[in-house]
Here is the input.
Amino acid sequence: MTPATCRYQPTCSHYAKEALEVHGFFKGGWLAIKRIFSCHPWGGSGFDPVPGKDDN
Here is the structure.
């Protein structure tokens, strides 16, 4: 009934889960925190996948 409000695909919670699974606690946690802090009216939007292990 209401429009989607998440600016990114995948959502921040899915991004954080995948980042932790792929990169572990420290780097995955850092990526999740950066993603959450970029979610504001002047931040980005659209498709933003978790970088792979080789994509430093």
